[in-house]
Specification:
Blueprint (H helix, E strand, L loop, with lengths): L1 H29 L16 E2 L5 E3 L19 H34 L17
Antiparallel strand pairs: 1-2
Helix pairs in contact: 1-2
Protein name: Flagellar protein FlgN
Organism: Cryobacterium serini
Length: about 130
């Protein structure tokens, strides 16, 4: 019985970490800068445990936890919710990428400022 409880606790901790990372990513997309445009958060240093201490470096690369064991069936709904929210954030990131690409294309279409003293030649004959 203790093994099943240990497995459940290990899975819960792994899901806690993923949920915190997802929350940090979602909040970073929602932050606005003083100019009213979407900005980003500085990387958050970690996740807080119930006692308030930082336990997980969120800015660090994620790697799959070792020794999780069999997946506890009682966590299936929580995992489905996490997956749904991850997919939702992926879609939002894709939309932001597309919008950024459109803005970048518009900015690149503006000709650079030219020196007013420079000669300008126009070929009207073609």
């Amino acid at each position: 019985m203790s093994s099943a409880l240990d497995n459940l606790s290990t899975w819960e901790a792994a899901l806690d970490d993923l949920e915190i990372r997802l929350d940090v990513a979602a909040r970073s997309m929602a932050v606005e800068s003083p100019g009213g445009e979407a900005g980003s958060l500085a990387p958050w240093s970690g996740s807080a445990s119930e006692g308030g201490e930082v336990t997980t470096p969120v800015g660090a690369d994620w790697s799959a936890p070792k020794g999780l064991g069999a997946f506890p069936a009682e966590l299936a709904t929580r995992v489905q919710d996490l997956l749904h929210n991850q997919q939702k954030l992926i879609n939002e990131l894709e939309q932001a990428r597309i919008l950024t690409l459109k803005h970048l294309t518009a900015v690149r279409s503006v000709p650079p400022e030219r020196d007013a003293r420079a000669s300008v030649y126009l070929d009207v004959a073609g």
